[in-house]
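User: Hey, my collaborator sent me this sequence without any context and asked if I could get a structure. I don't really work with proteins. Can you help?
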Amino acid sequence: MTMRGLDLQVEGLRLCGEGGRQLLQIPRLQIAAGSAVVLRGPSGAGKSTLLHVLAGLIAPQAGRVLWGGTDIAALRDGPRAAFRRARVGLVFQDPLLFEELSAPDNAALTALYAPAAARGEIAARGRAALARLGLDTADRRASASYSGGERQRIAVARALAGDPAVLLADEPTASLDRANADRLSADLIALAREAGRTLIVASHDPALMALADRVIDLRDGVIAGEKHG
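Assistant: No problem. I've predicted the 3D structure and written it out in structure-token form, which is a compact way to encode the shape of the chain:
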């Protein structure tokens, strides 16, 4: 297996909100390339905020966030966005689909931001991911007609279509019933491991935690402990 994933090194990370309220204070965090890691903690612990910092969607006030040696916290907005498009796949609790588009069209959306020569390959990877996730790639129904579990699998396929080195997911199973949550948990871990991607998921889901290599506990923006799978 070729390792696609990137290692993560966080150093001296600090992020404050309005009035100076501490949102994140992480002196050091290392995650090996190809690992599957779950961030857990109560609401407001900083899980989603940390994911947004790791994705380069939020810039911290201090510290370094190195993906494979690239400090995204030091990049300007344009280069940081370019890095995210090229190396990071994002999955959110809300699938954020274009409801009128089919599953294959939604899965291929990242092709809109790619050079023309790469668009066919991205669309093909999106279809392959849909098939791997159990969805019919010939189905041209509008995505609005799919179930919640199916819609979330479409969102995962979209994240994988760009062949990212890193997959970040924020509560991807929170709105699903137990059967669909278990299936998506297994698929997320398997799809990351098969390609050697680095997977970091913010979640309370016991199925995801049971399958992960590490579970990191956050409390008030601070790492409070962890366990290894």
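In plain terms: The longest helix spans residues 178-195. You can pass these tokens on to your collaborator as they are.
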